[in-house]
Structure formats: C-alpha cells, structure tokens
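2024-03-11 09:14:02 DEBUG pipeline.ingest accepted 1 chain
2024-03-11 09:14:02 DEBUG pipeline.ingest length=262
2024-03-11 09:14:03 DEBUG pipeline.predict start
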Amino acid sequence: MKSAHGAGFLHTLATKFGITTPDIMIGSSGDAGNLAYFSSGQYEGMKRVWTQLLSTPKYISFLRPWRVVDVDYLIDTVFKKQEVLDVEKIQNSTIHWFIPMSDFDTGYTQYVNAKDKLDLFEVLRATMAIPLAFGRKIPISGKRYIDGEFGPTLQDHVTHALHHGAKRILLLNHTSPWNFISRSVFKGYATHIPQGMHDALIRDISTNVFQMTAPGATVIAVAPQNLPAWNLTRDQKRLQATFDQGVADALSIEKELRELFR
C-alpha cells in the first residue's frame, strides 16, 4: 500500500514534468501496478486506484485471516472492471518494461516483459501474491509464482536495469527494513517452502533493503520513511496523504529529475 507514494511520484513525472517515456521501467509487487498504468498513459487511472478504489474491506480485511489482502479482487475487479487497464497500450508501449515475479519452487526471479507474451493480468497477480497475507501461488506456464519482492533484492533489480543499458537511474524504494518480528515470521515461513525459494528468501531477509551499487550510472534514490500508509493500510485519508507525499517529493527535486531525463 506504500506504493501509493510511487503513484504520486510517477503521476507528477507525467502530468507536471511531461516525463512519460523512460527507456526502461522495472516495477515489482504493488509498484508493478504503477508501472502498468504509467506505461499505458493512464495517469489519472493510477491516481484513482490508490486514492479511491482500494479503501475497502473487499481488498484488505483482518477479519479474513486466510486472505487479509485479496489480490484477486484487485486484479479481477479493480484492474479489469473499475479502472480498466489498457493491456494493448501496455504491450505496445515504447517503454522497455519488466515485472519480476518469484518462482515458488526454485526461488528464481523471472523478469517478464512484453516479448514474453504472457497474460499481463496473471503476471500482475503473481508479482503481488504476497506470502501469508494472500496465501496462494499463481500458476503461469506450468510454474508457481509469488510476490516479486520476496527473493530478489534491490541490487538484483538495479543489476537487471544495468544489464539492459541503463546509465541514468531513478530509484523509488518503498520497502521497509526487516525488523525482528518480520524477519522471524518469514524465517519461520521459509522452513515450510521448497529449498530454492527458502534460500532466496533467507538471502533477501539477510540483505539491507537499501544496499545497492550501480557502477558507471547516475542514480537518484528516493526512499521515503514513515509514510502515512503502511503495508496493510486501507484508510483513504492515509492513502491520499501518501500519494500527496509522492507528489511533493517529486516536486522537491524537479531540477534533478529534469536533468536525469534530459
């Protein structure tokens, strides 16, 4: 839910600065949705998703412990019906986009792009399939996938961008540092999953969420802490405030952003 900040930031890039066609985008978990709406040019739709459509117990409810976060509702109702994603525009975008999802059985991170010709809605469902809170794996092409932020590290995403020629990088990182409770919960979870995913998750847990290097590249890193919205927030005022902070953070470094995207 902290990806509401990313939505505000990207909305500002497009509507205030006219920055709409970066060469490469990588978006995982909640920010994969932002990538999709941005790549299709649906900037107002991206805003409505975060500030209006997710403040409902149909999406997040602690009274539904077997599925606190209903990713199926997000995909099948919000993305397909309420704020319809234009898949054709996304697939034909000039942006070379990648959406990571984690192979549950091997721990391997697959970076999906338009050339893979996979069902984009299922890819989005997979990259948002957060363990424990959603509780199911998404079958795609005979494999099972979960959230693209469980396993890969920030360095993995940066390395992937560098591999595809990135020289100037804007990094939006909404990930919270692992604390004792979250680390303990997911270490326990790791003991009940296949070895490959176990090893990838333990590596992820053991890595500083802000640690990365990008040799030869210019990097602007935005990593807001203490956002109004937390991981499982559905309060509309907090989501709007988080979106607004994304707007404010982009405006505060306008000069640097325009230079980066010159």
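2024-03-11 09:14:41 DEBUG pipeline.report The first strand starts at residue 24 and ends at 26.
2024-03-11 09:14:41 DEBUG pipeline.predict end
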